[in-house]
Amino acid sequence: MKTEFILDAALAIQRTILANEHTLESLDREIGDGDHYINMKRGASTVVEMQAELASLSPEAALNKIGLKLLSTIGGASGPLLASFFMSMSKSLKAHGDDSPTKIAAAFASGVQAIIQRGKANLGEKTMLDVLIPVAAQFESLAALGHDAKFIANALTKTAEAGMRSTKDLIATKGRAAGLGERAIGHIDPGAKSCQLMIEAVSQLI
């Protein structure tokens, strides 16, 4: 992984968040607090604005700096969760390196594990983790089998979409939607949707 790729990914993520304003706001109005899009837009824009200071850093240093910035920038639950993701990825890359798909997959999985621990949530609870957990597992599996980056990216895009769509039939047990009980069934989780969009945007760069 190179810092240049991280910067390109940040731009791609910002574009997809802005392009999907209506979708994210609609989903969040149905079962959320109504501020998901605003928080994601703020976070994505903040990272893009950091490009000049990130460009000279190593990948792990850039990811750590992004995590720290998001922690103080994004409101609600998303800030600490996304900050934990980037900072944990940074630690993994620093400890093990970033010169192979296997090591990058391990770093991604480490980031997802940090979200699990920070959010005290897991698969099947109608959250972003219904996208991130299966994506992380498949990323590690395909990397271990030696598949090339393009193959892995295409597969992860499909897995992210399947995970996002799976939230429609789930009862929420975490966050604002948890108070809706069965009324949340039939609605896609906005956090899962934004993660799916981000994974797709980054995968298209590969």
Give a verbal description of the structure:
The protein has 10 helices and no strands. 71% of the residues lie in helices and 0% in strands. The chain is globular. It has a single domain, classed as Serine Threonine Protein Phosphatase 5, Tetratricopeptide repeat, CATH 1.25.40. The chain has 206 residues and is mainly α.
Globally, the shape reads: globular
**Which structural category do the helix and sheet elements fall into?**
mainly alpha
Mean pLDDT: 91
User: How many helix segments?
Assistant: 10
* Major pleated sheet: none
User: What is Rg?
Assistant: 16 Å
The low-confidence runs, each spanning 5 or more residues with pLDDT under 50, are none
Number of structural domains: 1
Give the C-level CATH assignment: Mainly Alpha
Here the CATH topology equals: Serine Threonine Protein Phosphatase 5, Tetratricopeptide repeat
N-to-C span: 11 Å
**Strand segment tally:** 0
CATH superfamily: DhaL domain
**Fraction of helical residues:** over 70%
Query: In sequence order, what are the helices and strands, one letter per element?
Result: HHHHHHHHHH
Q: At CATH's second level, what is the architecture?
A: Alpha Horseshoe
Strand proportion = under 5%
